[in-house]
Amino acid sequence: MLFAIMSICVYTLDYNSILSNITYIGYDPKAYFSKFSELKYFHPYAGKFRHPFVSVIFLPFTIIFWLIGVLFSEPVKIFSMMLLFNLITATIVLVLYKYFVSVIKIQKRIAFLLCLLYISFGHIMLLISFPEIFQISVLGLLILVYITTDNQLNGVKVSLLTNIFLFCFITGTTVSNGMKCVVAQLFQKASYKSKFRSICWSGGICFGIIVVSILCSTAVYFYFNKSLPDNEPILKYLQPLTTNNVFHKFLFEPILFHDYSNFTSLIQTEIYYSSNYHLSIVIGFFIALLVCIFLCLKESPVLLLLSFFGIDILIHIICKFGINEAHIYSPHWLFIIPLLIGCFYKWVEQRKKNIAILNFILVFFLINFLFLNGLRMFNFFTNYN
Predict the structure, then answer these.
(1) CA distance 30 to 325
(2) 321: β partners
(3) pLDDT (0 to 100) of residue 41
(4) Is the pLDDT score of 45 beyond 70?
C-alpha cells in the first residue's frame, strides 16, 4: 500500500521534470518508458556487456506495456510500469522481513524496524519512485542470501536446480553479481565435490543461455531497426580513484542524500554535505555498523554478507569500475546493512543482553534518515531544473 501511494504521489507531479532530475543523478528511467514500452526497442541492453539477459527478462512486460499504450494512453502505461516496479520493491521488503523472522529468527518488531531502516536509505527511497534494473538484481541477490543462510543455520538443502536458476537470473541481470553467486555456493553446506559441480553447471548453463539470448534478441533488434545495437567500451567506466568518490559517492550518498541544488551532474562533479550534522549522522551510522560487525564477526551469515560487500569493493574501489557514479550501483549492497544489523541483534539475544540501548540507537538513525531523506525527496520532486 505504501509503495502504491508513493506511485500515485509521484504520478500526480510533473513526471517529465522529475525524470530529468533523476537523469542528472545518474539513473536512466527514460529508457524504460521510451524503449521497454515500445516493442521494436525491447533490446536496449542486449548489446551491452553489463546486462546481457535483461531484454529476455523484460520481454513479457515489454509486450504488456506496449499493448497498454495502444489500448489506453501514455499516462496509464507509465503508471502501470511504476506499479510493477514498486511491487518488486515491496517484494524485496517482504523477503527481508521473512529473512529476519524465519531464518535468523529475531523479534518481529525488530524485523519491522530494520525493514523501515532499509526503506529510509536515500537511494532505496529514490528507487521506489521510478523503474530501474536494480530492483530486479536486488530481489535475486536477496533470495540467494536467504536460501544460503537458511542452509547454513537451519540445514535446509539447496538444490542444484535452484543454484542454476539463481546464477542465471542474477548474472544475466548484472554480470558482476555472478561472483556473488559463486561465493554463496561456496558458503553452502555441501561437500567440496558438490560445490564444484554446482558452480560448473551453474556457470556453464548461464553462459550458454546468455549467449543464446544475446543472439536471439540481436536478431529481433536487427529485424525491427535494420541495424545492430551499439556496444559499450568497458574502459570508459574505469575512472580515477578519489577520496570524494570513495566516501561520498560510494558510501555516504546511498545512505543519506547530499544537497543537489548546486550540482548539474552527480557523476561529473564532487559532492559534499551542506551541513556538518548530515555528515556527522552518516559517519556515526557507519561507526555503529562497524562495531556491530566486529562483535558478531564469527557468525556465518555475517561472513557471507561481508563477502558480498567485498565483491562490490573489488569492482568499484580496487578495479575503479564506475567509481565516479558508484552511488547508482549502491542497491547491490545496501540491503546487506539491515541484514548485518539483524545478525547483531541475534548475537545480542543469544547472550541474553539488554537490547534497549540498541533499539534506541536504531530508532535514532531511522528517524533521522526518514526525515532528512524524505525532506530531500520532497524538494527533489517539487523543484525542477
Answers:
(1) 18
(2) 238
(3) 44
(4) no
